[in-house]
């Protein structure tokens, strides 16, 4: 299980209990984030190799920090 703190969005933390696969989604508030092997659009997140790095990539997408390799194009 992976747990990552957030600084932006409608939740204080993300807890992932299983590995996301291609096209799995997470809905936070009115935003839907989609896990992809090659994220390029807004609200897409890199699948990564394990729950911890996936949760970190999702947190980066929500917080708009980290690198573009973790998530798709900028979004607000």
Secondary-structure map with pairings?
Elements: E1 2-5, E2 13-16, E3 25-28, E4 31-36, E5 44-46, H1 51-63
Structure, explained:
By secondary structure, the protein is an alpha+beta fold. Helix content is 17%, strand content 28%. The strands form two sheets. It has a three-stranded mixed β-sheet with strand order 3-4-5, covered by helices on one side. A two-stranded antiparallel ribbon has the order 1-2. A hairpin with a 7-residue loop joins strand 1 and strand 2. The protein starts with a strand and ends in a 13-residue tail after the last helix. The mean pLDDT is 75.
Q: Strand-residue fraction?
A: 25-35%
Structural class designation: alpha+beta
Helices, by number, come to: 1
Oligomer state of the chains in this structure: single chain
Shape: globular
SS elements, strand count: 5
The major sheet is characterized as:
3 strands, mixed
| Helix amount | 10-25%
| Helix and strand run | EEEEEH
Distance from first to last alpha carbon = 28 Å
Strand order within the widest beta sheet? 3-4-5
Report mean pLDDT, rounded to a whole number: 75
Spans of at least 5 consecutive residues whose pLDDT stays below 50 are: none
User: Any idea what the radius of gyration is?
Assistant: 11 Å
């Amino acid at each position: 299980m992976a747990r990552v703190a957030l600084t932006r969005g409608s939740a204080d933390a993300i807890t992932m209990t299983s590995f996301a696969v291609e096209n799995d989604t997470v809905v936070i508030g009115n935003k839907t984030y989609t896990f992809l092997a090659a994220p390029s659009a807004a609200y897409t997140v890199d699948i990564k190799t394990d729950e911890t790095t996936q949760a970190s990539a999702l947190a980066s997408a929500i917080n708009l920090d980290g690198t573009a390799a973790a998530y798709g194009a900028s979004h607000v």
